[in-house]
Predict the structure.
Amino acid sequence: MPATPCIRMRRALRAAALGGMLLLAGLPVARGADGFSGDRDVQRFIDQMVSRHRFERKQLSRLFHDAHERPDVITAISRPAEAKPWYQYRDIFLTGTRIAGGVQFWRSHADVLDRAAREYGVDPAVIVAILGVETHYGSRTGSIPVLDSLSTLAFRYPRRADFFRSELEQFLLLTREERLNPLAVEGSYAGAMGLPQFIASSYRRYAVDFDGDNVRNLMDDVDDAVGSVANYLKEHGWRRGDPVAIAARVDGDGFHALLERGLKPNTPVSRMKDYGLKLQGPVPDSDEGALVELEDLDGKEYWVGLQNFYTITRYNHSALYAMAVYQLAEAIRSGYEQPRTVR
């Protein structure tokens, strides 16, 4: 019988762990020729890793020799989906296939989602929707070697070089701590990894061992992925039982002042009517929100993002992303709560 995707992933992880031990033992892992090792900025980075974290210089030199520059990574990061208008961005994620996949994922993993909701206070529908947006519930976790993508962005993308050099540092620390082969770990063009697409710094800080096997495995362990997403949202301010966003209507021009205040909740709901807003649902007057403007085919639509909406934007700093997660979560919840048909 052919190996399932999960079994193939576990075999790959075992091979990756073995590769990591070989690297730690000072043995080479062959991968290719031209890399980054001759670059002066890379040499300075190696110096810092040796002095700050006691990495072996020869080991790092071999790694960067075997890393590959990826022009496709520069192309991808220069054209993010979040640059699209809302009506195009929405259609990427709010599809029948992704909604049905979310319903099935929830039903298959209801126990661990319920436990995450109890322990972290996070809505299970939102956890499922984030995994759906990020990797289609684990089926699309990325195929670019993370060392390649982070090295390319750290040393060939000046616009955000400082950020990606920091993530490269975090990635090397992560692979040492988790005993992974840095050459074998794959992810997105921006270096995000596993079912929840955590970047290295988030993996180190927020990943949890949610199934008690003493391994924080976000690559193919659903329990760890669910618990880690819940932990991430809780640590970034998720409020148990609170709403995420409320549709709004605007009247006059006063609302423009609210748009200039950003995504962080900044205005009490009780004062929003002073700016010409009418909320389309009940929210306590003492709650604060932020006005969100989205571009639809027929014009603009407006929402008030509350604290939990802002928390979702800590996962991806985009109102489009948070709205896609919210609306996908609501569609999945609706499907999950419907009685199953008996065939």
Remarks:
- Residues 102 and 332 are 6 Å apart (CA to CA).
- DSSP finds 16 helices and seven strands in the chain.
- The chain has a mean pLDDT of 90.
- The longest strand covers residues 288-296.
